[in-house]
Amino acid sequence: MRILHISSVYPPHVIGGAEKVVEMLAEAQVARGHEVAAAYLTRAPEAAGTRHGVTVLPQASRNLVWMEDVFRQPRALRTANKLGQFVNYRAASDFARAIAAFRPDIVHTHSMVELPPMIWAEAARRGARTVHTLHDYDLLCSRASLFRDGRSCDALHASCRVASQWKRRFARDIDAVAAVSAPVLAEHRRFGVFADLPDDRARVIWNAVQDRGPPPAKPARDGDFTFGFLGRLVPEKGIAPLIAACRMLPPSGWRLLVAGRAQEGDAAYRAMAHDLPVTFLGFTDPRAFLDTIDILVVPSIWREPFGLTVVEAFAQNVPVIGSRLGAIGDLVGTVGDDWLVEPDDPAALAARMRQAMTAGREALPPPAAFAPVLDAVRLDRMVDGYDDLYAHVAARDRAA
Fold it and tell me: Exposed site from 3, 12, 169, 315, fewest CB < 10 Å?
């Protein structure tokens, strides 16, 4: 089968987790004998070529501002850039030419935050079947997060409704959709997106996580009970409620290590944690960081589409206290409901952290507790899921 992946960016240029997943999937499909290509945006023109067996078709960005420079621009320019992305017919034409040149059976689109939705129409016009993966909430929310003014959105704001209606116009050309978690698919259907697609064409396929092999044996730990936070220091990740919860813990016997950067600096969070045993480490290698903590805390207050940090923790036998929200609830809940707390509830979070301290390290779950999640995120499972979905779409097309 000839498969063309389309994503906002592609490795070696990486901004988030989606492009890493696309790369893993594409290269695994090559190993299975498929002919695979990836088309994506670049800051400047680049030549086509191959990367680890995948044909790469870079397309120079035609947006007003390159994606990594957006936050440094005035608000008016950011708005103009976003509006321009929605109707960027020149970009759609670029990707149409890539589709025509590669002649795929399947066009598999991923993160479309920087790409115009007309690409779906271009794929249909050229006879390809289209599968789209919901890595985020881009089809519903102009920020792709369903998060605004410090809280998750239960309804769409006016600007998001307009943007969503425009994208839905072209999303009709999508033949099948895969969501990286059940909550992501449920949110789209709640707002009427893909609500009419039958379940055999609207599936949940969890992201794979690169297998790093068994974690090294940890030495016996003693001293203060160590909690950890790993991720971007942004409001939706719940760092403020976590620090507030720490204010309710005993004055000694614990510490919190915070690994991650803030887009606009971490001074505000450092001020919140003044006089607490909280250490800000900045960017830190996740695997090395997880070796230093007893429990990872994932206190997100937005509907995380997927929980890569949770999976990384489980892979190193580190339990997680997580929010009962979005994909975090699905992943952490496999270990036990008692590891979940209500989002944005510092008192409940503090109570659970105190409970863990009181029970001690000997009460932490054994490695077997994490096996169901780690088994579900194996690379072969993800590739099997997409192979089956592609085959289903192709068989349906032949029947038509």
Answer: 12
Q: Cα–Cα distance between 231 and 277 in angstroms, integer?
A: 19
CB-CB contact of 46 with 59 (8 Å): no
Give residues with Cβ within 8 angstroms of 155, minimum separation 6.
none
pLDDT band for position 216 (cuts 50, 70, 90): low
CA-wise closest residue to 4 among 170, 137, 119, 87: 119
Instruction: Map residue 273 onto helix, strand or coil.
Output: coil
Task: Count Cβ atoms below 10 Å from residue 383 Cβ, excluding itself.
Answer: 20
Here the tokens at position 179 are 């969501």
On whether the CB atoms of residues 141 and 37 are closer than 8 A, the answer is no
More reliable by pLDDT, 212 or 54: 54
Quick one: CA torsion of 60, 64, 68, 70, rounded to 10 degrees? -170
Q: Tell me what pLDDT residue 131 has.
A: 98
How many Å apart are CA 39 and CA 301, to the nearest integer? 33
- Contact, 372 vs 314, CB < 8 A? no
- Report the distance separating Cα 135 and Cα 112, nearest Å: 9
Chain centroid offset of residue 347 CA: 28
Which tens digits make up the pLDDT trace of 82-127?
888 989 999 999 999 999 999 999 999 998 889 999 999 999 999 9
Order of strands across the sheet with 129-134?
A: 49-51, 54-60, 35-42, 2-7, 106-109, 129-134, 176-179, 202-204
237: Cβ–Cβ under 8 A, 6 or more apart, which residues?
229, 231, 299, 300, 301, 302
Please, what's the b/e burial string for 334-362 (b: 16 or more CB within 10 A of its CB; e: otherwise)? Answer: bbeeebbbebbbbebbbebbbebbeeeee
Give the pLDDT band of residue 46 (cuts 50, 70, 90): very high
Among candidate residues 16, 19, 20, 114, the one with its CA nearest the CA of residue 59: 114
Q: What is the pLDDT of residues 49-68, one digit of tens each?
A: 999 999 999 999 999 998 88
Looking at 232-345, list the stretches that DSSP marks H as alpha helix, in order from N- to C-terminal side. 239-246, 267-272, 286-290, 308-315, 326-332
